[in-house]
Amino acid sequence: MTAVAMTWLAGLCAVGLFVYLFYALVKPERF
Fold first, then answer.
1. pLDDT for position 14
2. Which long-range contacts (CB under 8 A, 24 or more apart) does 17-23 make?
3. Where are the chain's structural domains?
């Protein structure tokens, strides 16, 4: 895997985690 692909994958995981935490804070009744 190239460095670009690894960086893109890491960024995607970071964004997904950020969105998950954001929704967990905004809508705690769903978690």
1. 98
2. none
3. 1-31
